[in-house]
Structure formats: structure tokens, C-alpha cells
Amino acid sequence: MQLLNEQEIEKRKDREALMQLGIDPYPAISYPINASAADIHKNYENRKNDYKNISIAGRLMTRRIMGSASFAEIQDSTGRLQIYVRRDDICPGEDKTLYNTVFKKLLGIGDFIGLNGFIFTTQTGEISLHVQQLTLLSKSLKPLPVVKRDEEGNVYDGFTDPELRYRQRYVDLIVNPQVKDTFVARSRVISSMRRYFDEHGWLEVETPILQQVHGGAAAKPFDTHHNALDIPLFLRIANELYLKRLIVGGFEGVYEIGKMFRNEGMDRTHNPEFTSMEIYVAYKDYNWMMEMVEDLLGQIARAVLGETQAKVGENMIEFAGPYRRLTMFESIQEYAGVDVSQMDEKALRAVCADLGVEVDDSMGKGKLIDEIFGEKVEDHLIQPTYITDYPIEMTPLAKKHRDKPGLVERFELFVNGKEIANAYTELNDPIDQRERFEEQLKLAARGDDEAMAMDEDFLRALEYGMPPTSGLGIGIDRLCMLLTNKSTIQEVLFFPQMKPEKKVQVASDDDFIALGIHPGLVPAIRELNIHTLEQLRGQNPNKLFNDVCGKRKKLKLEAPNPTKDEVENWVTGA
């Protein structure tokens, strides 16, 4: 049963009234548009002759009814435009129903209308559309939140609750049009990144989302089952191993921008479904990749912001290179005050205890170092900083360092205390890779549910030979957060994952009867659109008494009228 409030009921009545007048509330027509609100505001003063026959469509957002003429505002995808509607202009004949009944009474805030007319400037200097034809394009059945603005344009009593905004993004975009700017910027981030790669001759590709073996990252996957093949499958946690297969196959540069899925926690910087870019370029190493990333991010910042600096919270981030470089061990030494470079697992556990870093028995040496780094270092890395040369235990897919035993050639880029990029000189020795996978299996046996699985087909591909290669992954969502100055990942995702909505518990007849309502009066209660105990308790007792008595009479119910005291007890639960 759909529970409706009074406004929703009235909107449905308006819909029925329109249909009785022969007006389809949802016509199947293609409506011609030759102008937008933004175009009109920008160009009308300099090109007035071009705006004498305007066709525009949008959502009705405000109305000021003034007898035989009215002002209103419509909102299209580019902004708002004031409209002026005269009864005799849209109703040139004897029949004034379109204005007197349809426009004044049956149309409401949120409805889509199409308008024809000419642009003029009012006595107060407002650029407006003088409407000559009006067409209903779509009737809304839910009221929009009322967002109020003062004379200076400041918003108050707005649609600001984060949970409602993220859950009902469509409403957020309607009443908070500035939210669109964030997603326009997001689109520019991706398009400028794609353009940069394409100009360098690297090929955009697509790899499987459903995978038989999850790999390419240390993360817990979502699992599912394919009925026809009767096999388990995993939503990908990364696309790395498939992209490397394409390097084996002969492509010199491939990249993919797409969704990844990790069955892990949710917070201000993590969503279980997120967008990542990964690129692999043959005959390169991680030193070359660091220089490429600096150039790439500088160009993206200029495309989105017009400059290389971005305001992020209280900090001004400079995306133009070069970026500071610290090894993993140097960063821990600098910010945690301890040298972990020569420590074994036992010593690392002691350091974690001294530093108050929480660990568990499943963590090996690499994970322990990573926990220390995460707790004591990350928050200090505000300006773009490369953390390089990780312990081999932390990175099963990176090549051993050419000069430093026990380390791998890897970097992560940190900005504003968060990792946004991860890159390696890729491991292309199939024997070494198999040994790394076997170490991961040992970690999995200890209970590490983020350990990588053995991927025999990937190993087979490496055995055919992969050229020296450097690979990079960038978190698109976190990069967008930085470039739009947003503190939560939910702000840069159209539809972030949310907890299920609480279902409204519809009261049964017995629930109403238990409150002392005569069984014969329950139909009157429901006819008043009261279907939950919460709705009943929100009623005004005197009004409810009159309404129930009126409905009892209209429905010809045999039950007697309640007393005012009885109705008072229904509402208070006494």
C-alpha cells in the first residue's frame, strides 16, 4: 500500500481533473526547443532580434498568480527563467479554461511545461519570456521541498539532509542546482584523462567484470554464482591482470576506466562500488610513471579548474609537479620516529603495540608495516607526495627493486592525507610471480581474506613473455573529491550505496481496534488516508473527530459516531 500525504492526494486529484478535461498529463510528443535559460540570459541583450520566437521547456518552480496575468519561473538543465503568462494570450478565444483552470488550479510546482513566446525585459529589469502558447508535458505527483531564498539570494530551510540528498539525488539536483557543477567537473576529469591517454596513442579497452579468479589488489571480493556454468564468480576488485595479458598480446599501451567492487567497509572515502582508471605502458618503469602522473594531473586540474591549484578544505593543493618523494621507510622514520627497515614480524608487532596501532594474528610483515604507515604517516601527506620503494611482502605484483634488496619498485601518490594513485614497475618474471602468489596463499591460510588468489592463466600469459612494463591505477572518485573540494565520496557519486530505507509499518485493522476504535469505523479511518499508528498520533483530535463523523455519514457506516474523548484517546494512545 502506498502511503500518501495530503499534497500527494491533491496532486493525484489534479491529474484526474486534467484527464477529465481531455488533457493528457503525460503526452507522447516530441517538443521542439530552440533556446535555453542560460543562453537567453547570456545573449538576449546583444541579440534581441534572435529571441522573438522562443520555444523552451522546463520544470515549473515558482508562481505568482495575479488575476488575469501571472509571473512564474521555470527551470531547465541550464538554469531558471522568469515567464509572464496572460490569460488572453494563451486563451485567445472564448474558452479560458487553459488559464483559469489548468494553469491557475491544476498545474503545480514540479510540473514540466513547454512554452512558446518572445523575450522581453520587465520594468524591474528582469529578462522574461512572454508566453503565447503553453503545453503540459509531465505532471508531477510528489511535492518538491520548499527551498527559501532571502532578498540577497541566500538559501535557508533548504534540502540539506545528507542522507535524503544522497538517497534522492534526483530531488537534490532539482532543488540544489549547484550540485550539478560537481558532476560536470567529474565528467571533465574523466574526459580530460581519456583525451590525454588517447593523444599519447594508448588504447582504451574493456576487460571482464565477472571473473573466475579475483586478483590485482589486496581486497575482499563480492562473490556470485553463474547458473549455466555452475561455477562461482567474483566481481572484479581490479582489472590489472587482464590488462597485463593485453601487454603480453602485443599492445604497447592500454587503459581502462571502469567500476571496481570491494566487499569492505563504507565511510567518507570508501564506497563498495567505485571508479578506477588503470593504465599499462610497455618499456617503461615507475620512475617514468611518476613524471607522467605529474604531467597528467596538472593537465586535468587545468581542464577542470583553469589552474593547477585546488582549494581542499583549509589547504591549497598544488598539482603541478614535481612532487615530493619519500620511501616507505623514510616516511615512517620521519612521522612515526621509528626505523622499521630491518625489523622482522615479531619486532614489528612490538612497535605496533608501542604506537597503539591495532593489529591481528592474520597480519604478516607487510600488513604490519602498512598499518603503521596508515596510522602514523598518511594524515601528514597534504601536498602531493610519492611514497616509494615498498617492502616486497606488501606488493605481490611489483618487480623487485633493482638496487634495494627486499623492496619493490612501487609508488603511491598521497594528496590531502589520502592515496589517490598506485603504480609499479610491473613484475614480469613468471617464476618470481608464482612464488609471490604462493606467499599470498599462506597469508590466506592464516585468515587474511584480502590475500590474492593463485591465477594460473595469468601465470601462463607471463610465461609467454611480457616486456618491461609500468602500470598505474588512479581512484577517480577521490581525485574528483580533491578537484571539487568535497570531503565525502558520496558527494561525487550520483548514487552512493546506502543502507536500506526503513519500511513504513502499515497498521492492521486489529492495530486500530486495539486503540479503542470501533471496527465499523476503521474504513472511515483508512478513507482519511490514515494507515499507520504514527499518522494517527499526528492528527489534531478535534479535526479528526469531525472528519471521522463526516466519513461515517458519507460511507453510510453502521457504526456509531465516536465521542470527542474517544478520539482524543486514539491520538494520545491513552
From TrEMBL:
<dbReference type="InterPro" id="IPR045864">
    <property type="entry name" value="aa-tRNA-synth_II/BPL/LPL"/>
</dbReference>
<dbReference type="InterPro" id="IPR002313">
    <property type="entry name" value="Lys-tRNA-ligase_II"/>
</dbReference>
<keyword id="KW-0436">Ligase</keyword>
<dbReference type="InterPro" id="IPR004364">
    <property type="entry name" value="Aa-tRNA-synt_II"/>
</dbReference>
<keyword id="KW-0460">Magnesium</keyword>
<dbReference type="Pfam" id="PF00152">
    <property type="entry name" value="tRNA-synt_2"/>
</dbReference>
<protein>
    <recommendedName>
        <fullName>Lysine--tRNA ligase</fullName>
        <ecNumber>6.1.1.6</ecNumber>
    </recommendedName>
</protein>
<dbReference type="GO" id="GO:0005829">
    <property type="term" value="C:cytosol"/>
</dbReference>
<feature type="binding site">
    <location>
        <position position="419"/>
    </location>
    <ligand>
        <name>Mg(2+) 1</name>
    </ligand>
</feature>
<comment type="similarity">
    <text>Belongs to the class-II aminoacyl-tRNA synthetase family.</text>
</comment>
<feature type="binding site">
    <location>
        <position position="419"/>
    </location>
    <ligand>
        <name>Mg(2+) 2</name>
    </ligand>
</feature>
<dbReference type="GO" id="GO:0004824">
    <property type="term" value="F:lysine-tRNA ligase activity"/>
</dbReference>
<keyword id="KW-0479">Metal-binding</keyword>
<keyword id="KW-0547">Nucleotide-binding</keyword>
<dbReference type="InterPro" id="IPR044136">
    <property type="entry name" value="Lys-tRNA-ligase_II_N"/>
</dbReference>
<dbReference type="InterPro" id="IPR012340">
    <property type="entry name" value="NA-bd_OB-fold"/>
</dbReference>
<comment type="subunit">
    <text>Homodimer.</text>
</comment>
<dbReference type="InterPro" id="IPR006195">
    <property type="entry name" value="aa-tRNA-synth_II"/>
</dbReference>
<dbReference type="GO" id="GO:0006430">
    <property type="term" value="P:lysyl-tRNA aminoacylation"/>
</dbReference>
<dbReference type="GO" id="GO:0005524">
    <property type="term" value="F:ATP binding"/>
</dbReference>
<keyword id="KW-0067">ATP-binding</keyword>
<dbReference type="GO" id="GO:0000049">
    <property type="term" value="F:tRNA binding"/>
</dbReference>
<dbReference type="InterPro" id="IPR004365">
    <property type="entry name" value="NA-bd_OB_tRNA"/>
</dbReference>
<dbReference type="GO" id="GO:0000287">
    <property type="term" value="F:magnesium ion binding"/>
</dbReference>
<dbReference type="InterPro" id="IPR018149">
    <property type="entry name" value="Lys-tRNA-synth_II_C"/>
</dbReference>
<keyword id="KW-0963">Cytoplasm</keyword>
<keyword id="KW-0648">Protein biosynthesis</keyword>
<feature type="binding site">
    <location>
        <position position="412"/>
    </location>
    <ligand>
        <name>Mg(2+) 1</name>
    </ligand>
</feature>
<feature type="domain" description="Aminoacyl-transfer RNA synthetases class-II family profile">
    <location>
        <begin position="183"/>
        <end position="496"/>
    </location>
</feature>
<dbReference type="Pfam" id="PF01336">
    <property type="entry name" value="tRNA_anti-codon"/>
</dbReference>
<keyword id="KW-0030">Aminoacyl-tRNA synthetase</keyword>
